[in-house]
């Protein structure tokens, strides 16, 4: 419990004092990696707000978060952020240079889909994470248009979950399958998420930073973006 509270405080301090957006992303990732049980809708919201509000950061964040997904990290917040970011910015993931000096190649779209399918099968991924993942697969139908094999795998996953025992996943899969048949509107529905803006915290003390409600200027944490 103390470790989770400390993780939340560190995330707040990083958000408040970061002067470099790439450093912000890297530090949050490293912080989450050492807190395996930490869960926080607020941290998800904060990172979504940072990434959606800074187009120049989106490709970098997609690569960095994808790397944690490929490494099979199962930290709950990190997993949700990774599948969300890959879904939103999959086109940047396969087209922009991979950060670093290693000369790494961009991931193959089919392999990306395989990773997301693995999240759906994972016993450690909670239902919210799986909902994020189904949504990410749907988004990638408009990001991976140059890869027919990847699109075929997405359709296969939607077909599998259209008969899922979980009603929420089943409903989403069926609705998305129907949406894909409506080409005239599916493109607009699956556009990138607009900038998600958080309200400023009311106070500047570290004690207030430790309160989840302080970040949103209200009495309760703001809800995470709908998967």
TrEMBL record:
One of its GO terms (cellular component) is membrane coat. One of its GO terms (biological process) is intracellular protein transport. Residues 1-182 form the Clathrin/coatomer adaptor adaptin-like N-terminal domain. Gene3D superfamilies: Leucine-rich Repeat Variant. Residues 211-221 have a biased composition (Low complexity). It comes from the Eukaryota. The keyword Membrane applies. It is found in: Endomembrane system. InterPro entries: Adaptor_Complx_Large_Subunit (IPR050840), ARM-like (IPR011989), ARM-type_fold (IPR016024), Clathrin/coatomer_adapt-like_N (IPR002553). It holds the Pfam family Adaptin_N. Keywords: Membrane, Protein transport, Transport. Residues 197-206 have a biased composition (Basic and acidic residues). The keyword Transmembrane does not apply. Its main location: membrane. Residues 196-227 are annotated as: Disordered. This is Clathrin/coatomer adaptor adaptin-like N-terminal domain-containing protein.
């Amino acid at each position: 419990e103390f470790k989770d509270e400390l993780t939340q405080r560190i995330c707040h301090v990083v958000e408040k004092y970061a002067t470099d957006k790439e450093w912000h992303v890297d530090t949050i990732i490293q912080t989450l990696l050492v807190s395996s049980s930490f869960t926080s809708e607020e941290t998800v919201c904060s990172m979504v707000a940072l990434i959606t509000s800074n187009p120049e950061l989106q490709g970098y964040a997609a690569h960095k978060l994808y790397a944690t997904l490929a490494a099979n990290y199962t930290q709950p917040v990190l997993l949700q952020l990774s599948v969300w970011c890959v879904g939103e910015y999959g086109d940047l993931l396969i087209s922009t240079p991979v950060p670093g000096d290693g000369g790494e190649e961009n991931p193959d779209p089919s392999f990306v889909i395989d990773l997301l399918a693995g999240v759906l099968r994972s016993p450690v991924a909670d239902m919210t994470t799986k909902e994020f993942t189904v949504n990410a697969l749907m988004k990638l139908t408009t990001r991976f248009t140059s890869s027919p094999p990847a699109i075929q795998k997405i359709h296969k996953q939607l077909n599998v979950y259209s008969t899922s025992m979980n009603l929420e996943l089943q409903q989403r899969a069926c609705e998305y399958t129907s949406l894909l048949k409506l080409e005239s509107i599916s493109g607009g529905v699956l556009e990138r998420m607009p900038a998600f803006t958080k309200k400023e915290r009311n106070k500047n003390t570290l004690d207030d930073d430790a309160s989840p409600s302080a970040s949103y200027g209200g009495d309760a944490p703001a809800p995470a973006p709908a998967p």
